[in-house]
Amino acid sequence: MKMSTKGRYGVRAMVHLAVHYGQGPLPVRKIADRMDVSAKYLDHLMAALRMAGLIRSIRKAHGGYILARSPKEIRLSEVVKVLEGSVAPVDCVDDAGACHQADFCAAHDLWKRVQEAMDNVLESVTLDEMSQRQKEKRGR
Description:
Strand content: 5-15%
Largest sheet: 2 strands, antiparallel
Number of strands: 2
CATH superfamily of the domain at 5-86 and 126-139: Winged helix-like DNA-binding domain superfamily/Winged helix DNA-binding domain
Strand order of the largest sheet: 1-2
Structural class: mainly alpha
CATH class of the domain at 5-86 and 126-139: Mainly Alpha
Order of helices and strands: HHHEEHHHH
């Protein structure tokens, strides 16, 4: 599976919020400027993340977005699922009815293993871990 800009930008924005966790809300414009992306596009992604309960919006003079839970409690699998949906590389992995050969197709088994591997990696990483990696990279 190739991650779309929705998934890539959404993960980066969530990592940015995790890096600044506990420091108050961050305006979408500030996040977008740091990421060098369109604030309008990023706001669209943030709305999806907010509706999923991963972030909260604060509406006041110094408002913006904050994580709805601790970065230690948010897994990348949650973020990617909201923005990308399934990480299955082919349709028949999620919907066996999409292919009448799925039950006896060796390639189907391979694609299922690819999906499971991606799911396992995304489930194993928290925003806290990503924020620590980000801080290390910025420190260099």
